[in-house]
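Predict structure. Chain length: 101.
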Amino acid sequence: MILVEPGGVRTGIWEDNQEAPSRHQGSRYTKAYERELLLPRLAEPFMGNPRQVAKVIVQAVSTRMPRARYLVGNDARILALIEQTTPTLLKDTVTRFGFGL
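Prediction complete.
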């Protein structure tokens, strides 16, 4: 099995996500949905190109000895490092705070 983990990538998913707060209007999580839109806007200048991800996928499936995991983009590598080195309680606390939960 090969796992390809891209970081943020400029695709249409971010535009689709713009409608989430209006779909959940009146929910107790409305503020969380609104905050969720902030991160992609801030990260947009750093997002990778979908072609870069496709290139890594082609490389992974066509090599004789593929690695088990491919991280695509600096943000993916940074998030993987944070995941490995940060206690779960701290990650959960930061996530809850970030989303206003």
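Summary: Residues 35 and 99 are 6 Å apart (CA to CA).
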